[in-house]
Amino acid sequence: MDAKLTLKLDKYVIDKAKEYASLHNRSLSRMIESYLKSLIDKEGKHPNNDIEISPFVKSMITGVNIPADYDYKKEYTDYLSEKYK
Hints:
By secondary structure, the protein is an all-alpha fold. The protein has a domain at about 10-50. About 55% of the residues lie in helices and about 0% in strands. It is built from four helices and no strands. The termini are far apart. The mean pLDDT is about 85.
């Protein structure tokens, strides 16, 4: 259920936030709601975690599982050897 909330913010911040929301085809209300939800979710899951993962990084999640014993240096060496044969 949606409810109204009145906030007092600097006019410059409001104007820039509206521009940003418009460029991303979102309403300012939904943008603020998403931000507040991310804060709430973060507190609920990891209250003592000091590391913050940005939304951009979160958007890059692919779902690919890499084995724990994966040797990326060997794979990269093999790739370069094959490339420059």
